[in-house]
TrEMBL record:
Originating species: Tepidimonas taiwanensis
An example Gene Ontology molecular-function term: transaminase activity
Pfam families associated with the record: Aminotran_3
Protein's recorded name: Glutamate-1-semialdehyde 2,1-aminomutase 2
Lineage summary: Bacteria, Pseudomonadati, Pseudomonadota, Betaproteobacteria, Burkholderiales
E.C. no: 5.4.3.8
Length: 455
Protein backbone atom coordinates (compact mmCIF):
# COMPACT_ATOMS: atom_id res chain seq x y z
CA UNK A 1 0.00 0.00 0.00
CA UNK A 2 1.57 3.33 -0.99
CA UNK A 3 1.80 5.85 1.88
CA UNK A 4 -1.08 8.29 1.90
CA UNK A 5 -0.07 11.71 0.61
CA UNK A 6 0.74 14.39 3.11
CA UNK A 7 -0.80 16.77 3.59
CA UNK A 8 -4.16 15.24 2.85
CA UNK A 9 -5.69 17.36 0.02
CA UNK A 10 -9.11 17.44 1.68
CA UNK A 11 -7.65 18.64 4.97
CA UNK A 12 -5.59 21.24 3.10
CA UNK A 13 -8.66 22.53 1.27
CA UNK A 14 -10.62 22.72 4.54
CA UNK A 15 -7.81 24.67 6.18
CA UNK A 16 -7.69 27.07 3.23
CA UNK A 17 -11.47 27.63 3.43
CA UNK A 18 -11.16 28.50 7.13
CA UNK A 19 -8.29 30.89 6.42
CA UNK A 20 -10.25 32.63 3.69
CA UNK A 21 -13.12 33.23 6.11
CA UNK A 22 -10.70 34.49 8.72
CA UNK A 23 -9.17 36.96 6.26
CA UNK A 24 -12.55 38.28 5.14
CA UNK A 25 -13.73 38.77 8.73
CA UNK A 26 -10.57 40.66 9.67
CA UNK A 27 -10.58 43.07 6.71
CA UNK A 28 -13.88 44.98 6.45
CA UNK A 29 -12.18 48.18 5.23
CA UNK A 30 -10.20 46.37 2.53
CA UNK A 31 -13.44 44.70 1.48
CA UNK A 32 -15.22 48.04 1.20
CA UNK A 33 -12.36 49.54 -0.83
CA UNK A 34 -12.29 46.49 -3.08
CA UNK A 35 -15.95 47.00 -3.81
CA UNK A 36 -15.43 50.67 -4.72
CA UNK A 37 -12.40 49.88 -6.87
CA UNK A 38 -14.30 47.16 -8.71
CA UNK A 39 -16.40 49.90 -10.33
CA UNK A 40 -13.43 51.55 -12.05
CA UNK A 41 -10.52 49.15 -12.24
CA UNK A 42 -10.16 45.96 -14.16
CA UNK A 43 -10.27 43.20 -11.53
CA UNK A 44 -10.72 45.98 -8.96
CA UNK A 45 -7.05 46.95 -8.86
CA UNK A 46 -4.91 49.56 -10.65
CA UNK A 47 -2.60 46.77 -11.91
CA UNK A 48 -4.16 43.36 -12.45
CA UNK A 49 -1.19 41.59 -10.77
CA UNK A 50 -2.33 43.06 -7.49
CA UNK A 51 -4.97 40.31 -7.44
CA UNK A 52 -2.36 37.58 -7.83
CA UNK A 53 -2.23 37.07 -4.06
CA UNK A 54 -3.82 34.16 -2.23
CA UNK A 55 -6.09 36.36 -0.06
CA UNK A 56 -9.77 36.28 -1.04
CA UNK A 57 -10.06 40.06 -1.20
CA UNK A 58 -7.40 42.64 -2.07
CA UNK A 59 -5.28 43.84 0.84
CA UNK A 60 -5.09 47.65 0.76
CA UNK A 61 -2.05 49.29 2.35
CA UNK A 62 -2.16 52.35 4.55
CA UNK A 63 1.57 52.80 5.11
CA UNK A 64 4.85 50.94 4.87
CA UNK A 65 8.01 51.63 6.86
CA UNK A 66 11.19 49.59 7.15
CA UNK A 67 10.31 45.88 7.19
CA UNK A 68 6.67 46.40 8.12
CA UNK A 69 3.44 47.60 6.61
CA UNK A 70 0.01 48.43 7.95
CA UNK A 71 -3.19 47.68 6.11
CA UNK A 72 -6.26 49.90 6.01
CA UNK A 73 -7.87 47.77 8.70
CA UNK A 74 -5.00 48.64 11.04
CA UNK A 75 -3.29 45.25 11.06
CA UNK A 76 0.51 45.27 11.10
CA UNK A 77 2.48 42.93 8.83
CA UNK A 78 6.10 41.91 8.77
CA UNK A 79 7.06 42.15 5.12
CA UNK A 80 9.29 39.48 3.58
CA UNK A 81 7.99 40.32 0.08
CA UNK A 82 9.23 43.90 0.14
CA UNK A 83 7.42 44.82 -3.04
CA UNK A 84 9.01 41.80 -4.77
CA UNK A 85 12.41 43.44 -4.14
CA UNK A 86 11.56 47.07 -4.93
CA UNK A 87 11.72 47.76 -1.20
CA UNK A 88 14.71 45.47 -0.55
CA UNK A 89 16.42 48.19 1.50
CA UNK A 90 13.25 48.65 3.56
CA UNK A 91 10.13 50.71 2.87
CA UNK A 92 10.70 54.45 2.55
CA UNK A 93 14.35 54.44 3.60
CA UNK A 94 14.98 57.80 5.27
CA UNK A 95 17.82 59.05 3.03
CA UNK A 96 15.77 58.37 -0.10
CA UNK A 97 12.56 59.83 1.35
CA UNK A 98 14.44 63.01 2.29
CA UNK A 99 16.21 63.32 -1.06
CA UNK A 100 12.92 62.83 -2.94
CA UNK A 101 11.14 65.40 -0.77
CA UNK A 102 13.91 67.94 -1.31
CA UNK A 103 14.07 67.39 -5.07
CA UNK A 104 10.28 67.41 -5.42
CA UNK A 105 10.31 71.14 -4.70
CA UNK A 106 13.08 71.78 -7.27
CA UNK A 107 11.65 70.32 -10.45
CA UNK A 108 10.50 66.82 -11.27
CA UNK A 109 11.34 66.30 -14.90
CA UNK A 110 13.03 68.48 -17.57
CA UNK A 111 14.39 66.01 -20.16
CA UNK A 112 17.76 67.46 -19.19
CA UNK A 113 20.18 65.97 -16.69
CA UNK A 114 20.07 67.32 -13.14
CA UNK A 115 23.24 68.52 -11.47
CA UNK A 116 23.44 65.25 -9.54
CA UNK A 117 24.08 63.30 -12.76
CA UNK A 118 27.88 63.58 -12.58
CA UNK A 119 28.00 62.37 -8.99
CA UNK A 120 25.57 59.53 -9.75
CA UNK A 121 27.70 58.34 -12.68
CA UNK A 122 30.78 58.27 -10.48
CA UNK A 123 28.97 56.35 -7.76
CA UNK A 124 27.50 53.81 -10.20
CA UNK A 125 30.96 53.08 -11.59
CA UNK A 126 32.44 52.81 -8.13
CA UNK A 127 29.71 50.59 -6.68
CA UNK A 128 29.05 48.22 -9.56
CA UNK A 129 32.43 48.26 -11.30
CA UNK A 130 31.45 49.13 -14.88
CA UNK A 131 32.65 52.44 -16.36
CA UNK A 132 29.68 53.48 -18.54
CA UNK A 133 25.98 53.82 -17.68
CA UNK A 134 22.52 54.60 -19.00
CA UNK A 135 19.26 54.86 -17.10
CA UNK A 136 15.74 53.57 -17.67
CA UNK A 137 12.53 53.80 -15.66
CA UNK A 138 12.02 50.10 -14.98
CA UNK A 139 14.00 46.90 -15.24
CA UNK A 140 11.70 45.80 -18.08
CA UNK A 141 12.67 48.91 -20.01
CA UNK A 142 16.35 48.47 -19.24
CA UNK A 143 16.29 44.88 -20.49
CA UNK A 144 14.43 45.84 -23.63
CA UNK A 145 16.94 48.60 -24.38
CA UNK A 146 19.94 46.41 -23.63
CA UNK A 147 18.71 43.77 -26.07
CA UNK A 148 18.32 46.46 -28.71
CA UNK A 149 21.87 47.69 -28.13
CA UNK A 150 23.22 44.14 -28.10
CA UNK A 151 21.67 43.29 -31.46
CA UNK A 152 22.75 46.62 -32.90
CA UNK A 153 26.39 46.31 -31.91
CA UNK A 154 26.83 42.63 -32.77
CA UNK A 155 24.65 42.65 -35.87
CA UNK A 156 23.27 39.29 -34.71
CA UNK A 157 19.52 38.58 -34.46
CA UNK A 158 19.23 36.05 -31.62
CA UNK A 159 19.20 36.37 -27.89
CA UNK A 160 19.62 33.46 -25.51
CA UNK A 161 17.80 33.07 -22.21
CA UNK A 162 17.33 30.33 -19.64
CA UNK A 163 14.15 28.31 -19.30
CA UNK A 164 12.10 29.73 -16.43
CA UNK A 165 13.54 33.22 -16.85
CA UNK A 166 11.71 36.43 -16.14
CA UNK A 167 13.16 39.74 -17.26
CA UNK A 168 9.99 41.81 -17.17
CA UNK A 169 7.46 42.74 -19.83
CA UNK A 170 9.92 42.09 -22.69
CA UNK A 171 8.54 40.21 -25.69
CA UNK A 172 11.87 38.60 -26.53
CA UNK A 173 12.12 36.94 -23.14
CA UNK A 174 8.50 35.91 -22.49
CA UNK A 175 9.25 32.47 -23.82
CA UNK A 176 9.46 28.88 -22.66
CA UNK A 177 11.34 25.85 -23.87
CA UNK A 178 9.25 23.10 -25.38
CA UNK A 179 10.49 20.12 -23.36
CA UNK A 180 9.82 17.69 -26.22
CA UNK A 181 11.63 19.55 -29.00
CA UNK A 182 13.76 22.14 -27.22
CA UNK A 183 12.15 24.77 -29.44
CA UNK A 184 11.34 28.27 -28.24
CA UNK A 185 7.64 28.83 -27.68
CA UNK A 186 5.70 31.86 -26.54
CA UNK A 187 4.80 31.64 -22.85
CA UNK A 188 1.21 30.49 -22.96
CA UNK A 189 0.00 33.13 -20.51
CA UNK A 190 1.26 36.08 -22.58
CA UNK A 191 -1.51 38.24 -24.02
CA UNK A 192 -1.51 39.60 -27.55
CA UNK A 193 1.76 38.01 -28.61
CA UNK A 194 2.69 38.14 -32.30
CA UNK A 195 6.49 37.86 -32.09
CA UNK A 196 8.18 35.11 -34.09
CA UNK A 197 10.10 33.87 -31.07
CA UNK A 198 11.76 31.07 -32.94
CA UNK A 199 13.59 33.55 -35.16
CA UNK A 200 14.87 35.73 -32.33
CA UNK A 201 15.13 33.91 -29.00
CA UNK A 202 16.74 30.66 -27.96
CA UNK A 203 15.99 28.98 -24.63
CA UNK A 204 18.14 26.44 -22.84
CA UNK A 205 18.01 24.85 -19.37
CA UNK A 206 19.87 26.68 -16.61
CA UNK A 207 23.15 25.15 -15.42
CA UNK A 208 23.66 23.30 -18.73
CA UNK A 209 27.04 24.19 -20.28
CA UNK A 210 26.71 21.76 -23.19
CA UNK A 211 23.41 23.33 -24.19
CA UNK A 212 24.99 26.77 -23.87
CA UNK A 213 27.90 25.84 -26.10
CA UNK A 214 25.54 24.36 -28.69
CA UNK A 215 23.22 27.38 -28.64
CA UNK A 216 26.09 29.80 -29.26
CA UNK A 217 27.95 27.73 -31.83
CA UNK A 218 26.50 29.22 -35.03
CA UNK A 219 27.55 32.77 -34.11
CA UNK A 220 24.00 34.13 -34.35
CA UNK A 221 23.48 35.00 -30.68
CA UNK A 222 23.97 38.65 -29.80
CA UNK A 223 23.61 38.23 -26.05
CA UNK A 224 23.05 35.77 -23.29
CA UNK A 225 20.61 37.61 -21.01
CA UNK A 226 20.46 35.95 -17.61
CA UNK A 227 19.98 36.34 -13.92
CA UNK A 228 23.04 34.97 -12.10
CA UNK A 229 20.57 32.64 -10.32
CA UNK A 230 17.01 32.01 -11.45
CA UNK A 231 14.89 33.90 -8.93
CA UNK A 232 11.56 34.08 -10.67
CA UNK A 233 10.87 30.39 -11.13
CA UNK A 234 11.79 29.24 -7.74
CA UNK A 235 15.27 30.06 -6.57
CA UNK A 236 17.75 28.06 -8.64
CA UNK A 237 21.39 28.86 -7.85
CA UNK A 238 24.20 28.37 -10.35
CA UNK A 239 26.18 25.14 -9.97
CA UNK A 240 29.75 25.68 -8.75
CA UNK A 241 31.88 26.96 -11.63
CA UNK A 242 28.91 27.43 -13.93
CA UNK A 243 29.29 31.14 -14.44
CA UNK A 244 33.05 31.10 -14.93
CA UNK A 245 32.60 28.50 -17.68
CA UNK A 246 29.55 30.24 -19.17
CA UNK A 247 31.42 33.52 -19.31
CA UNK A 248 34.31 31.84 -21.14
CA UNK A 249 31.89 30.28 -23.66
CA UNK A 250 30.26 33.66 -24.34
CA UNK A 251 33.68 35.23 -24.95
CA UNK A 252 34.71 32.40 -27.26
CA UNK A 253 31.56 32.74 -29.37
CA UNK A 254 31.53 36.56 -29.45
CA UNK A 255 28.26 36.70 -27.52
CA UNK A 256 27.74 39.48 -25.00
CA UNK A 257 27.22 38.32 -21.43
CA UNK A 258 24.38 40.42 -20.02
CA UNK A 259 23.50 39.92 -16.36
CA UNK A 260 20.15 41.13 -15.06
CA UNK A 261 20.75 41.70 -11.35
CA UNK A 262 17.38 43.22 -10.55
CA UNK A 263 16.82 40.50 -7.93
CA UNK A 264 20.32 39.17 -7.30
CA UNK A 265 21.36 42.61 -6.12
CA UNK A 266 20.45 41.01 -2.79
CA UNK A 267 23.50 38.68 -3.10
CA UNK A 268 25.95 41.14 -1.60
CA UNK A 269 27.32 44.67 -2.00
CA UNK A 270 27.33 45.52 -5.71
CA UNK A 271 25.36 42.40 -6.66
CA UNK A 272 26.26 38.83 -7.59
CA UNK A 273 28.74 39.60 -10.38
CA UNK A 274 30.73 41.94 -8.17
CA UNK A 275 30.80 39.58 -5.22
CA UNK A 276 31.73 36.59 -7.42
CA UNK A 277 34.27 38.40 -9.62
CA UNK A 278 32.35 37.89 -12.87
CA UNK A 279 32.87 40.40 -15.68
CA UNK A 280 29.67 40.81 -17.69
CA UNK A 281 29.73 42.96 -20.82
CA UNK A 282 26.48 44.60 -19.76
CA UNK A 283 24.77 44.65 -16.38
CA UNK A 284 21.24 45.65 -15.35
CA UNK A 285 19.46 46.52 -12.13
CA UNK A 286 16.03 47.98 -11.45
CA UNK A 287 13.50 47.87 -8.63
CA UNK A 288 15.56 48.53 -5.46
CA UNK A 289 18.44 50.27 -7.18
CA UNK A 290 17.07 53.72 -6.27
CA UNK A 291 15.53 52.59 -2.99
CA UNK A 292 12.14 51.82 -4.54
CA UNK A 293 11.64 54.99 -6.61
CA UNK A 294 11.03 54.02 -10.26
CA UNK A 295 14.48 53.83 -11.81
CA UNK A 296 16.69 51.26 -13.50
CA UNK A 297 20.29 51.35 -14.65
CA UNK A 298 22.44 49.48 -17.11
CA UNK A 299 26.20 49.53 -17.17
CA UNK A 300 28.70 48.33 -19.76
CA UNK A 301 32.39 48.09 -20.52
CA UNK A 302 34.41 50.70 -22.38
CA UNK A 303 34.60 48.37 -25.37
CA UNK A 304 30.83 47.96 -25.46
CA UNK A 305 30.40 51.72 -25.06
CA UNK A 306 32.60 52.32 -28.12
CA UNK A 307 30.58 49.83 -30.15
CA UNK A 308 27.35 51.47 -28.99
CA UNK A 309 28.60 54.87 -30.14
CA UNK A 310 29.57 53.43 -33.51
CA UNK A 311 26.18 51.81 -33.99
CA UNK A 312 24.30 54.97 -33.01
CA UNK A 313 26.49 57.23 -35.14
CA UNK A 314 26.02 54.98 -38.17
CA UNK A 315 22.22 54.94 -37.80
CA UNK A 316 20.03 57.53 -39.52
CA UNK A 317 18.78 60.47 -37.46
CA UNK A 318 15.55 59.77 -35.61
CA UNK A 319 14.03 57.50 -33.02
CA UNK A 320 16.45 54.95 -31.58
CA UNK A 321 13.70 52.97 -29.89
CA UNK A 322 15.71 53.33 -26.68
CA UNK A 323 14.61 55.52 -23.79
CA UNK A 324 11.38 57.03 -22.50
CA UNK A 325 10.62 60.68 -21.80
CA UNK A 326 10.64 60.48 -18.01
CA UNK A 327 13.82 58.40 -17.88
CA UNK A 328 16.55 59.77 -15.58
CA UNK A 329 14.22 62.46 -14.32
CA UNK A 330 15.37 64.63 -11.44
CA UNK A 331 13.41 62.69 -8.85
CA UNK A 332 14.87 59.36 -9.97
CA UNK A 333 18.40 60.77 -9.98
CA UNK A 334 17.97 62.21 -6.50
CA UNK A 335 16.69 58.89 -5.19
CA UNK A 336 19.46 56.98 -6.96
CA UNK A 337 22.14 59.22 -5.51
CA UNK A 338 20.79 58.81 -1.98
CA UNK A 339 20.46 55.05 -2.43
CA UNK A 340 24.00 54.66 -3.77
CA UNK A 341 25.42 56.67 -0.89
CA UNK A 342 23.35 55.31 1.99
CA UNK A 343 21.77 51.97 1.03
CA UNK A 344 24.18 50.05 -1.21
CA UNK A 345 26.63 49.82 1.67
CA UNK A 346 28.45 47.05 3.53
CA UNK A 347 26.48 48.02 6.65
CA UNK A 348 23.13 47.47 4.87
CA UNK A 349 24.21 44.11 3.57
CA UNK A 350 25.61 43.02 6.92
CA UNK A 351 22.22 43.74 8.52
CA UNK A 352 20.42 41.88 5.72
CA UNK A 353 22.72 38.89 6.11
CA UNK A 354 22.24 38.82 9.88
CA UNK A 355 18.47 38.58 9.48
CA UNK A 356 18.78 36.03 6.67
CA UNK A 357 21.15 33.86 8.76
CA UNK A 358 18.60 33.77 11.58
CA UNK A 359 15.72 33.01 9.23
CA UNK A 360 17.58 30.27 7.38
CA UNK A 361 18.69 28.61 10.62
CA UNK A 362 15.18 28.83 12.07
CA UNK A 363 13.54 27.31 9.01
CA UNK A 364 16.12 24.54 8.73
CA UNK A 365 15.75 23.67 12.40
CA UNK A 366 12.02 23.23 11.87
CA UNK A 367 12.41 21.11 8.74
CA UNK A 368 14.87 18.93 10.60
CA UNK A 369 12.83 18.67 13.80
CA UNK A 370 9.62 17.77 11.95
CA UNK A 371 11.41 15.56 9.44
CA UNK A 372 10.10 17.43 6.44
CA UNK A 373 11.64 16.56 3.04
CA UNK A 374 11.90 20.22 2.05
CA UNK A 375 14.76 22.56 1.29
CA UNK A 376 15.69 26.14 2.07
CA UNK A 377 17.75 27.56 -0.78
CA UNK A 378 19.60 30.75 0.02
CA UNK A 379 21.21 33.48 -2.04
CA UNK A 380 22.46 36.38 0.07
CA UNK A 381 19.54 38.11 1.73
CA UNK A 382 17.01 36.07 -0.25
CA UNK A 383 15.86 32.52 0.36
CA UNK A 384 13.12 30.20 -0.69
CA UNK A 385 11.34 27.35 0.99
CA UNK A 386 11.07 24.59 -1.60
CA UNK A 387 8.79 21.61 -1.26
CA UNK A 388 11.44 19.21 -2.52
CA UNK A 389 14.29 17.33 -0.87
CA UNK A 390 17.16 19.21 -2.58
CA UNK A 391 17.97 22.46 -4.30
CA UNK A 392 16.68 22.46 -7.90
CA UNK A 393 19.08 22.60 -10.84
CA UNK A 394 16.78 24.10 -13.45
CA UNK A 395 13.21 25.11 -14.23
CA UNK A 396 12.06 21.58 -15.09
CA UNK A 397 13.21 20.46 -11.69
CA UNK A 398 11.04 23.17 -10.14
CA UNK A 399 8.05 22.27 -12.33
CA UNK A 400 8.24 18.64 -11.27
CA UNK A 401 8.04 19.52 -7.59
CA UNK A 402 5.46 22.31 -7.72
CA UNK A 403 2.77 22.12 -5.01
CA UNK A 404 0.46 25.02 -5.72
CA UNK A 405 -2.17 24.27 -3.05
CA UNK A 406 0.43 23.87 -0.32
CA UNK A 407 2.09 27.11 -1.35
CA UNK A 408 -1.20 29.04 -1.35
CA UNK A 409 -1.98 27.61 2.07
CA UNK A 410 1.34 28.76 3.50
CA UNK A 411 0.91 32.25 2.07
CA UNK A 412 -2.61 32.85 3.32
CA UNK A 413 -1.97 31.26 6.70
CA UNK A 414 1.04 33.51 7.27
CA UNK A 415 -0.77 36.58 5.96
CA UNK A 416 -3.50 35.94 8.55
CA UNK A 417 -0.80 35.96 11.20
CA UNK A 418 0.79 39.19 10.04
CA UNK A 419 3.54 37.87 7.79
CA UNK A 420 3.82 38.70 4.10
CA UNK A 421 5.64 36.39 1.66
CA UNK A 422 6.25 37.05 -2.03
CA UNK A 423 3.30 35.74 -4.02
CA UNK A 424 3.89 33.10 -6.75
CA UNK A 425 6.53 31.22 -4.73
CA UNK A 426 8.04 30.81 -1.30
CA UNK A 427 10.55 33.65 -1.57
CA UNK A 428 11.57 35.53 1.56
CA UNK A 429 13.76 38.60 1.41
CA UNK A 430 15.39 40.31 4.38
CA UNK A 431 15.95 44.07 4.43
CA UNK A 432 18.39 45.97 6.65
CA UNK A 433 15.35 46.81 8.80
CA UNK A 434 14.39 43.14 9.29
CA UNK A 435 15.07 42.32 12.93
CA UNK A 436 15.05 39.29 15.19
CA UNK A 437 11.48 40.02 16.24
CA UNK A 438 10.36 39.96 12.58
CA UNK A 439 12.11 36.66 11.96
CA UNK A 440 10.65 35.21 15.16
CA UNK A 441 7.18 36.18 14.03
CA UNK A 442 7.57 34.36 10.72
CA UNK A 443 8.96 31.27 12.42
CA UNK A 444 6.15 31.21 14.98
CA UNK A 445 3.55 31.44 12.21
CA UNK A 446 5.36 28.71 10.26
CA UNK A 447 5.23 26.46 13.33
CA UNK A 448 1.56 27.16 13.75
CA UNK A 449 0.94 26.28 10.09
CA UNK A 450 2.79 22.99 10.40
CA UNK A 451 0.83 22.21 13.57
CA UNK A 452 -2.40 22.94 11.68
CA UNK A 453 -1.28 20.53 8.97
CA UNK A 454 -0.64 17.88 11.61
CA UNK A 455 3.10 17.68 11.12
N1 LIG B 1 14.33 41.43 -14.25
C1 LIG B 1 14.14 40.61 -13.22
C2 LIG B 1 15.21 39.63 -12.87
C3 LIG B 1 12.94 40.66 -12.49
O1 LIG B 1 12.77 39.82 -11.48
C4 LIG B 1 11.96 41.58 -12.87
C5 LIG B 1 10.64 41.67 -12.14
N2 LIG B 1 10.29 40.64 -11.31
C6 LIG B 1 12.22 42.43 -13.93
C7 LIG B 1 13.42 42.33 -14.59
C8 LIG B 1 11.21 43.45 -14.36
O2 LIG B 1 11.12 44.46 -13.42
P1 LIG B 1 9.99 45.56 -13.59
O3 LIG B 1 8.68 44.83 -13.45
O4 LIG B 1 10.24 46.50 -12.45
O5 LIG B 1 10.15 46.18 -14.90
Amino acid sequence: IPPSPWPDPTALAALQARERERFLAAHPTSRALAERCAAHYLYGVPLHWMRDWPNPVTLFVRAAHGAALTCVDGHAYVDFCLGDTGAMFGHSPAPVAQAVAAQAAQGLTCMLPAEAAARVGERLAQRFGLPYWQLAMTASDANRFVLRWARAITDRPQVLVFDGCYHGAVDDTLVDRDPATGATVRRRSVLGGVHDHHAFTRVIPFNDLDALDAALADGQVAALLAEPALTNFGLVPPAPGFWEAAQALCRRHGTLLVLDETHTLSSGVGGYARTHALSPDMWIAGKAVAGGVPCAVYGFTAEVAARMRNAKDAAPEGHSGIGTTLTANALALAALEAALEHLHTPASYAAMARAADALEAGLNARLHHRQLPWTVTRLGARMELQFMPRTPRNADDVRQHAQAALEASLHLFLLNRGVLLTPFHGMMLCSPATGDDHVARLLAAFDEWLDALGR
